[in-house]
Amino acid sequence: MKALFAAAALALCTAPLASAQSIVGTWTCVRSTVDNNAVSNVTFTDSGRLDALVNIDFLGLDQEVSAQARYRSDYQLVNSTLSDTPVSTYVSKLTIDGQDALRSEQAESLRQALLEGSDASAKVTFTSDNYMILSADTAPINCVRM
Length: 146
Hints:
Mean pLDDT: 84
Distance between the termini: 20 Å
Number of strands: 10
Strand order of the largest sheet: 2-3-4-5-6-8-9-10
Largest sheet: 8 strands, antiparallel, barrel
Structural class: mainly beta
Number of helices: 2
Shape: globular
Helix content: 10-25%
Low-confidence stretches: 1-21
């Protein structure tokens, strides 16, 4: 789930009704690791569309990088596993060591990484109607319904 994240990954399919009802809505999701932080506002629609505004801060090779991107995909939730098929992504902000890099090769690389790196899946654990944990790798993504 690279856009979510890098948050996390998500695809369009018919999910069981109970699962679709559980995830539909807008969530704030946070993932923190030693070298990066990501905060996303993610909306899951009942038609299977995911729309995320992702804010990422991380340390590159001796560089501080800050980015904001909009990510859209078609998602499915089946047997507590969330997966997706990317539809589009747009990088709206990219700074490297405080310098604007929006028109750089790195911005295009980030956009491509979000599109290409989203074929992962994440286990979804609902701890309540308003809280879920996405587990795609070693760092969980914690989400709260807005």
